[in-house]
Amino acid sequence: IDSTMVALSTPFPGTTIRYAVDGTTPTKSSAIFERPFAVNQTSTILAMPFVKDEPAGPVTKLTVQKLIPREPV
Fold this sequence. Notes:
Number of helices: 0
Helix content: under 10%
Oligomer: single chain
Distance between the termini: 19 Å
Shape: elongated
């Protein structure tokens, strides 16, 4: 598998999801989630809802691990 798609959502209405793919906590200057994106390497994604550039909920963490298939035995 070369990559996987990541989609983010929140149960908090009226919020914007900001995320970071380098394992850092999202800030008001982090990327805004607008549509699913591809991840092609091991990554730790942290996402957080924001309202008017202020955190509005908990940080959610997702680790995507790229696995290299082994030859059949």
